[in-house]
Write a structure and sequence with these properties.
The complex is a heterodimer of chains A (555) and B (355).
Chain A lengths: L5 H16 L3 H17 L6 H18 L6 H19 L3 H7 L17 H23 L3 H40 L16 H16 L9 H9 L12 H4 L11 H33 L7 H33 L16 H7 L2 H15 L6 H19 L3 H25 L2 H8 L1 H23 L3 H12 L15 H22 L3 H6 L3 H18 L13
Chain B lengths: L22 H34 L5 H10 L8 E5 L2 H6 L2 H7 L4 E4 L7 H12 L5 E6 L11 H9 L20 H8 L2 H7 L3 H14 L23 H21 L7 H11 L3 E6 L4 H22 L4 E4 L17 H15 L5
Parallel strand pairs in B: 1-2, 1-3, 3-4, 4-5
Helix pairs in contact in B: 1-9, 2-6, 4-13, 5-11, 6-7, 6-8, 10-12
The chains are: A mainly alpha (555), B alpha/beta (355).
């Protein structure tokens, strides 16, 4: 379900209404969990099995790490949930099941493996309902420290296994096949035509942080399955983040949520700003970006630079727009989700850029990858190696494609260079003073922005010949001023340019003067009423032809 | 990297109002959040439908909307020849010259840029409802090619209410050139068409600006039904060679595709025209000498096909070799000289066929 759709508006209104009516904490949580499953299942109900599986495994593992033993009633409940997950996983054609109870027509899969009979169904059900309880019993007979490790490994293996199978399976098989060809072998590996479940990278990272924090002793395992399930599936941030930490969310579930007019208004303003970013800016420029960077060969430098700028604006407005909507909706419920973007395009160094861009991912990578690798505690060369590994894996997190690996490596190298330069500058006081002056700051901003833009090209252009052509056009200005026909009509470039200028003005104002949601919060009510009305008008004209999904859904 | 901080400015936290809102304040806020933007959107819709589209139009597609209005207004007295076709017809036929050559006849030029036979299928019932004596169908040798449906055009035909004149039994199967999406666009209700065209006033402004700025746009001829030509200059040399090349590529792609869906359409059109008491005139349009050899076989096949269709009632007028190279503005469109020659040719065909 897309935030900018009518069905989501309905869902949100129903949730807000019910939240207002339901006073008991458990009822509110049950309702929010149901809404979250509706939200996710709207895209494809079968993939709810991943959420269920992740919830059950992480809930059980965290309790196991804390040495809490499930009673039989809890175990029974887990089995029922796993059974439901098993059926969802099968992608059952429900009508055929109810009508004839034969499985030959289980063709509702969009991935290739076909289930040919009841044996497979029974096998899948047994796997889901028996394997878990069996493993659980085995772990109970281990020594406490081994049991803690076993539970952690099971949780990580499940989450990384889900991610590996659904996101990286094809990538791995394709590259293995290519590698075989390069060696002169013709390997016929099985095709793995699996759909990438929406938001898989976000919720698997989120659930992993829960069990890791419990294992590290930073968090007590949550006793309520309902709360863990809601933490995994909380719909405002489920499919494109921010990646919530358990410490940021679980405490909020210990008190009943109440709607307050001030929170409603503030959340609405934040969501409105996010919606405008997505619909009026990101979607307005996407056509131009696709037309130019989708086929950059032969395009003049000017057009490639323009498209790269547009893409930088598009990806920022798309992703931060989603985050704003998510934070706004959660704020309406009375729960604050942390900031994920803090004006990254005003950064004056790459290190600063990564403190401002996708903050929840960069802090996740820092806490669960970079620091466990040794961080900066093991000398310079290990620090740089750790940075590179972290950023390459961070790049791969974005998608199973070599250009994301390259992008991650590029960012890693830039971060290393930034650290080296920073250390050098600190030893030369004159240079440091110059770089901290106004002109020096402007210079640092220009260089950082240029390098970030170059990175976006690597991020956006997936084919190697296209990437080489685009990079060449971006770096070496060819002086050609005549654009090739893009087939987008006459108004699309003008609209894109307009969106770029409007974004630049509003963004600069928001950064240097006052953030837009806050400005709206402080606006007198009669003026707000007129503004809401005018925004309704602007959204009517600016709404794109089709609701485009958020870019980060694919990650 | 371990210097990362979460950079959560205090200012972004929700305002800490200590007054717990009453239920009615919450409901009031929700109503305001949904109601006021909705009211704004509704006013924007009214502004679009009542002011912007009627005044600024739909840009390049506005001629379709205007044709719908025109066919519901007072038309010239019969016998009337309605000339249909793409931009070659639009540029190549001057109704006044046709009328001069065929005394007693009145003619109108409904040529539309990039129109194909599917579009004639869509518009034909509205045209036949006005009882024309003849419907002139301008065809290039590759005229049976059905283009990928343009959703914008389908909405424009829908907005111009062409489907309302269709016989009750017309279904999608009768339109080989339409897919499900374009069919849905064509059959959508008026509000959906208007919402589709919510950015059209921008196209209208762009179109008007280009008419004003560019020298090769003679006049804003969307409402012109007699001589709606636009091109003022001719091209030659390399630009002409490139245009010829482009047309050859297009035709070759059509030949390679072996798409024959369009071949059933002329018979369908002729049957409809005849059953409405009118006469179909298949006008095989002039071909630039640089393209004649390339299109000769295709043109001959089309000629034979429409001859066979017209054998049950109708006329075939073959003007493929009518014009010299000097009579073309580019590789396909006639210039002023070509327009006069082609119009006289059509007038000669119509002359004496008065009903």
């Amino acid at each position: 379900m897309l935030f900018q759709s009518f069905e989501f508006l309905l869902l949100l209104l129903v949730v807000l209404g019910l939240l207002h009516v339901l006073r008991r904490r458990a009822s509110q949580h049950s309702m929010l969990l149901a809404a979250s499953y509706v939200f996710y299942g709207w895209w494809d109900v079968r993939f709810l099995f991943l959420l269920l599986l992740s919830t059950v495994v992480d809930y059980t593992a965290a309790l196991g790490i804390n040495g809490v033993r499930l009673n039989w009633r809890q175990r029974w409940r887990m089995s029922v949930i796993l059974l439901a997950a098993g059926f969802l996983c099968l992608g059952v054609n429900w009508s055929s099941v109810f009508e004839a109870w034969h499985t030959s027509s289980l063709t509702a899969f969009e991935w290739r493996p076909t289930w040919n009979g009841w044996r497979e169904v029974l096998g899948m059900v047994m796997l889901f309902t028996c394997a878990g309880p069996f493993l659980y019993e085995v772990y109970q007979h281990l020594a406490p420290s081994a049991r803690r490790t076993a539970f952690l490994v099971t949780s990580l293996a499940t989450n990384l296994g889900i991610l590996g199978a659904f996101k990286y399976g094809n990538f791995f098989l394709d590259n293995l096949q290519g590698f075989g060809g390069w060696l002169g072998h013709s390997w016929h590996l099985p095709a793995w035509h699996v759909i990438l479940p929406v938001g898989i990278s976000f919720y698997t990272f989120q659930t992993m942080s829960y069990t890791i924090d419990v294992y590290r002793g930073q968090l007590e395992a949550e006793r309520s399955l309902l709360r863990v399930a809601l933490y995994v599936a909380y719909f405002p941030q489920l499919v494109a983040g921010p990646i919530l930490r358990p410490q940021q969310f679980l405490p909020a579930l210990r008190v009943p949520w109440t709607l307050e007019a001030a929170n409603l208004q503030s959340g609405f303003h934040l969501a409105l700003v996010g919606l405008c970013k997505k619909v009026l800016i990101a979607d307005s420029v996407s056509g131009m970006v696709d037309a130019i960077l989708g086929n950059p060969q032969g395009q003049p430098s000017l057009l490639v630079i323009f498209a790269t700028l547009l893409f930088a604006v598009q990806i920022y407005c798309d992703f931060s727009g989603y985050t704003d909507i998510a934070r706004g909706i959660s704020r309406m419920f009375g729960v604050e989700i942390p900031l994920n973007f803090n004006y990254p395009y005003f950064s004056t160094s790459i290190i600063e850029f990564w403190r401002r861009w996708h903050i929840s991912l960069s802090t996740w990578l820092r806490d669960y990858l970079y620091i466990p690798l040794g961080g900066n505690r093991l000398g310079s060369s290990r620090t740089y190696t750790n940075l590179l590994i972290t950023m390459i894996l961070g790049g791969l997190w974005h998608g199973a494609s070599w250009n994301f690996v390259l992008w991650g490596a590029y960012q890693g190298v830039l971060l290393c260079l930034n650290r080296i330069l920073r250390a050098f500058v600190e030893r030369v006081p004159g240079l440091q003073r110059f770089l901290e002056s106004r002109f020096g700051t402007l210079l640092r901003w220009c260089v950082t922005t240029y390098l970030v833009m170059l990175g976006w090209l690597i991020f956006r252009v997936t084919s190697w010949p296209d990437l080489v052509a685009a990079l060449r056009a971006f770096v070496v200005f060819d002086g050609r001023l005549q654009a090739t026909a893009l087939g987008l009509g006459n108004t699309a470039p003008v609209l894109a340019l307009l969106a770029l200028l409007v974004f630049a003005m509003l963004h600069t104002f928001g950064h240097f003067v006052r953030r837009w949601p806050e400005l709206l919060d402080a606006t007198p009510k009669p003026i707000l009423a007129i503004l809401y009305f005018l925004i309704g008008m602007v959204l009517f004209y600016g709404w794109p032809g089709a609701n485009e999904p958020f870019i980060y859904f694919q990650f | 990297m371990n210097n990362f901080t979460k950079s959560e400015p205090n200012a972004s936290a929700p305002p800490s109002h200590d007054v717990s809102a009453t239920g009615s304040r919450c409901w009031f806020a929700l109503v305001a959040f949904v109601g006021l933007p909705s009211a704004g959107a509704w006013c924007a819709f009214l502004l679009l439908s009542e002011v912007l589209i009627p005044t600024v139009g739909l840009g390049e597609l506005d001629r379709i909307r205007l044709l719908g209005d025109h066919l519901r207004s007072d038309l010239p007295a019969p016998p009337l020849a309605m000339c249909w076709g793409n931009s070659i017809v639009r540029e190549g036929i001057d109704a006044a010259i046709v009328e001069n050559q065929a005394p007693g006849w009145r003619a109108e030029n409904y040529g539309l840029s990039a129109a194909d036979l599917t579009e004639l299928q869509i518009a034909l019932p509205a045209m036949l409802a006005r009882k024309p004596s003849a419907v002139v169908i301008g065809l290039t040798p590759w005229g049976t090619r059905l283009k990928e449906p343009d959703i914008g055009k389908m909405h424009a035909y829908g907005l111009a209410r062409f489907p309302r004149d269709w016989p009750a039994n017309w279904e999608k199967e009768q339109f080989p050139g339409l897919d499900s999406e374009s069919w849905a666009a064509l059959r959508a209700d008026t509000n959906e068409h208007l919402i589709f065209f919510r950015r059209a006033p921008l196209d209208g402004l762009d179109y008007a600006a280009r008419v004003l700025i560019r020298g090769d746009r003679g006049k804003n001829s969307g409402r012109e039904w007699s001589a709606p030509y636009e091109m003022q200059r001719s091209i030659g040399g390399e630009r002409l060679a490139r245009h010829v090349e482009v047309i050859q590529e297009e035709v070759q792609a059509f030949l390679n595709s072996e798409d024959r869906r369009g071949e059933v359409v002329p018979r369908f059109l002729a049957d409809e025209i005849r059953s409405a008491g009118s006469e179909p005139v298949f006008l095989l349009l002039p071909v630039h000498p640089l393209l004649q050899d390339f299109t000769e076989d295709l043109g001959t096949r089309l000629h034979q096909h429409v001859e066979e269709v017209a054998s049950h009632g109708g006329v075939v007028a073959d003007a493929r070799h009518l014009l010299e190279a000097e009579a073309f503005a580019d590789a396909v469109h006639p210039n002023a000289e070509g327009r006069a020659t082609l119009s006289r040719f059509l007038g000669t065909v119509l002359n004496g066929r008065t009903r």
